[in-house]
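Subject: Sanity check before I submit

Could someone independently write out the structure tokens for this chain? I want to compare against mine line by line before I put it in a report. The sequence has 94 residues.
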Amino acid sequence: MLRVRRSIVLTLEGKAYPFKVDGLRTIGADVSKISGVGRIDHLKPAADLAGTYGSAGSASLKNDKGVVIEFRAKGKGVSLDLDLSGVHITMVPE
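---
Independent answer below. Compare away.
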């Protein structure tokens, strides 16, 4: 298993918001780069993306503000697992 610690950028209404992500692990593949697609629901201000996410279904994560992320990793043999403490997303100050 490989722990994944990455930066992501959320683009909302033409503005870019940087975030750090911690708490994901890759399973079943020797991977140096992971890409994927996702959908975010119930996001009002961009800052609401920050928080600790727990499982809300097979491919969904939900935080305490009600934001839901559905994510699917691209690539054969790649799957993601959550740390027991959840996935932590932190907004990076501008």
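---
OP: Matches mine. For the report I'm noting this point. The two ends are 33 Å apart (CA to CA).
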